[in-house]
Amino acid sequence: xxxxxxxxxxxxxxxxxxxxCSGWDDTxxxxxxxxxxxxxxxxxxxxxxxxxxxxANFDDLIEHYQYDSIPGxxxxxxxxxxxxxxxxxxxxxxxxxxxxxxxxxxxxxxxxTTIALVAAGSPEATAERFDELTQDSMKxxxxxDLFEDAEIPGDWNKGRLLHGDYGKGDAxxxxxxxxxxxxxxxxxxxANLSGGDGGRSDQETFDVEEVQEYLMSTVIPEMNETVESxxxxxxxxTD
Length: 239
Hints:
This protein has about 240 residues and is α+β, with helices and mostly antiparallel strands.
């Protein structure tokens, strides 16, 4: 797996990344670079290189939907390096597998796939960022066609799933809020799922309902397992 690290001053060219960054400051960036012992979940998460930490999660997601290739490299944006700056994320522009049977309108289609976390330092601040980010995503989808906005119950404090089409086929943004962090997954399928029969080249099927189920029942819970397992690893500090 190849990835590049975003420079702290660079903006990321992502369709689904949002420019709004209200409520974010440099507190945790300063803590993470200070060399002192760091114990809280937010400061730990905000030190991760996301494309390394979530490599297996990213692979599982794009392999599930039969990607063909990644033209270029995965972009790893640690805390303070992306847009918004508090998003810890791994993203790539994915070329989806061509369908010789033309069951889906996705031939040669590319779409960004992103997995990300925000840990704002307290449950209250993280819940506030959850509301802000989901509202910003709503604005993006409403500029085109928003097909669905649903609150999703689960093993989290809040869950929300947005589904629409803004020119990349059916696109999904899934959010789950836990006590100390939130998880976000963006998927541009490159497929006209809402208007097609959901077939794909290996004769299996996926449709809107399957994508929704997979994101909320598999992808986000497995990402949460990765977060929890990595939070149990002692953080290395510098003198």
